[in-house]
Model the fold of this input.
Amino acid sequence: MTARAQVFGALLQRAATPERLQWEPLRPGVEFHALYGRPGSGPAAALLRYAPGASVPAHRHTDYEHILVLDGEQRDANGRYPAGTLLVSPPGSRHAVVSDHGCLALAIWAGPLAFDPA
Done:
């Protein structure tokens, strides 16, 4: 059986009306709309919606992570990432993410995340 490409037509238009999408909780104040896979557990892609002040705790990337901020802003210890920013985190990198005023982002993970112990 040959693998087929997945096509996400009108993704930006869908992201422009997030209230029309089905969201699932990821972390307190952070929700996801899965495109494929399951966020943080292996190859996956999702839209992420952060409520104002929401965060994702410190974690290490076991493979590449690509984050395209579509609306709002998020930040980590390395800087602030406003709408239009593409952040590529390589394997072995670590960070914690906060969105002070809320944001919407497209996240693509090549592999799972390793969260730091609480």
The first strand starts at residue 24 and ends at 27.
